[in-house]
Design goal:
By secondary structure, the protein is of the alpha+beta class. About 40% of the residues lie in helices and about 10% in strands. A hairpin with a 5-residue loop joins strand 1 (about 55-60) and strand 2. It starts with a helix and ends with a strand.
Length: about 160
């Protein structure tokens, strides 16, 4: 399963806003430049984020966007869902008895993929925007192999 650019870019932009905004309005042009995201694409995403109450817009000189609520209260799942990114791993429509097969039946692996989608949603709902900004999301990306030049082995250490 792959999260599309809509969800990934929305999360990247919100992390940028939380990191650099600190209560001050930030222009989308600044976020777009720092995150290397198309400004027009970011405008579309922020329209959806604003309608969901995740950001507030301010017009005029010095205007831009601020977080709609504290970063600690904003879940990553809220951001992904706000930009219409479904968190599913099945081809079938979630929650219906109708499957994706030609005869409207479910494949044998349907429940496996549906549960994977549920687990992804639960994980993203357990992580706040603040957790990402404060680098509290732990995973294997924190493991940095340290290579001993005297041997061909690697020691894995937390970075």
């Amino acid at each position: 399963m792959k999260l599309s650019t809509k969800g990934r870019y929305a999360v990247m932009a919100m992390v940028d806003l939380a990191t650099h905004g600190q209560g001050r309005p930030m222009s989308l042009a600044d976020i777009a430049e720092r995150q290397e995201i198309s400004l027009s694409y970011l405008e579309q995403l922020f329209g959806k984020l604003r309608r969901s109450g995740l950001v507030k817009s301010m017009r005029g000189p010095g205007g831009g966007y601020t977080l709609g609520r504290p970063a600690v209260e904003t879940r990553i799942s809220d951001i992904v869902l706000a930009v219409d990114e479904p968190i599913t791993a099945t081809r079938c429509k979630t929650g219906t008895p109708v499957g994706c097969r030609g005869n409207q039946g479910r494949c044998l692996t349907h429940d496996l993929w549906e549960e994977l989608g549920n687990q992804i949603h639960l994980y993203l709902a357990s992580v706040s925007l603040s957790d990402v900004v404060d680098r509290k999301v732990l995973g294997t990306s924190r493991l940095v192999p340290e290579i001993d030049p005297a041997s061909s082995s690697c020691d894995v250490r937390f970075g």
